[in-house]
Amino acid sequence: MAELIANLKVVRDKINVASARRPLEYKYFEPRLVAVSKFKPVELIVDAYKAGQRHFGENYVNELAEKGNHSSILEMCTDICWHFIGHLQRNKINKLLTTPNLYIIETVDTEKIASALNAAWSKCRTHENLKLKIMVQVNTSNEQEKSGCERTQVCSLVQYIIDNCTSLEFVGLMTIGMFGYDVTKGPNPDFLCLKECREEVSKELGIDSKKIELSMGMSSDYEHAVELGSTNVRVGTAIFGERPKKDIS
Ligand SMILES: *Cc1c(COP(=O)(O)O)cnc(C)c1O
After folding, report:
1. Which residue segments constitute the domains of the chain, with CATH numbers given?
2. Quick one: pLDDT at residue 43?
3. From the CA of 206, how far away is ligand 1's center (Å)?
4. Which pLDDT does position 146 carry in this prediction?
5. 42, 87, 126, 205: least CB-packed within 10 angstroms?
6. Ligand 1 near 236 CB (within 6 A)
7. Is the CB of 201 within 6 Å of ligand 1?
8. Beta bridge partners of 98
């Protein structure tokens, strides 16, 4: 537990330093830290919560539903905000949407999934007409095996959501990007690409770009991402330690 709290403090401090280094144009917001707790036990989530952490990310619907409904979380983490950051299948939507304290789904990448979420959310009775926050995931690295819509489709998907999915609130854009990019080579092209997508959405749809969040940056590059204007970094390993090898969607 002491180690977890020390890690959390290091990550927060580094975010603050990176955040202070940003150009003035980005200083209208403070980046949000999402602690990615996949494969990690509820006890560690409670410890991090007690140390002030509120936003947590999970990749798998079953795991999120289990943790979100766990009695310790319900009793001790009443203001927890869950981010769903994994690949979403339609047959899991109801389970996801009925998880207590679901804050946002960061991985909407098709019209189909957006429509399905919209329909399911409008039928949920667990919220008082609040819209469901979503981000559009973009496959900025154009890797076949990665989720996310193609960058050329971002504007039309956002337009579709705004026009047809009135129970959803479009909040921003998310990318995972290529693994192992060497930052000494300059700004990460995936992060630059996500920023360009934001400019396109802002221009084409007439949305103030300050109202479009950027979810980018993980353990290996969150400081770099913050310097480039990330509003939401998703950090797992640097907080909770190594995970068993397996994942990533
Ligand atoms: C696992 C995961 C993270 C966290 O990765 P770390 O390298 O452990 O910080 C962030 N975003 C997504 C989408 C993930 O799946």
Report:
1. 2-240 (3.20.20.10)
2. 97
3. 31
4. 85
5. 126
6. yes
7. no
8. none
Q: Is 228 in the pocket of ligand 1 (CB under 6 A)?
A: no
Q: Would the CB of 59 count as within 6 Å of ligand 1?
A: yes
The string of pLDDT tens digits covering residues 182-201 is 988 999 999 999 999 999 99
Give the model's confidence band at 118: pLDDT under 50 very low, under 70 low, under 90 confident, else very high. Answer: very high
Tokens of 67: 């943790």
Residue 156 CA to residue 205 CA, distance in Å, equals 9
Structure tokens at 244: 């068993």
Quote the percentage of the chain above a pLDDT of 90: 88
Q: Using the structure block, give the residue that is written with the tokens 């907080």.
A: 239
Could you tell me the distance, in angstroms and rounded to a whole number, from the CA of residue 10 to the centre of ligand 1?
17
Q: Is 207 in the pocket of ligand 1 (CB under 6 A)?
A: no
pLDDT band at 246 (very low <50, low <70, confident <90, very high): low
Pairing relation of β-strands 132-137 and 168-174? Answer: parallel
For the residues 147-160, what does the mean pLDDT come to? 97
Q: Provide the 8-state DSSP code for 210.
A: G
Q: What pLDDT, in 10s, does the model give residues 36-77?
A: 999 999 999 999 999 999 999 999 999 999 999 999 999 999
Distance CA 132, CA 75 (A): 24
Amino acid at 17: V
Q: In 3D, which of 7, 33, 31, 10 has the Cα closest to residue 19?
A: 31
Q: Return all residues near 71 (Cβ < 8 A) that are at least 6 apart.
A: none
Contact 133 CB / ligand 1 (< 6 Å)? no
Quote the strand ranges of 115-167, DSSP E. Answer: 132-137
Closest approach atom of ligand 1 to CA 249:
15
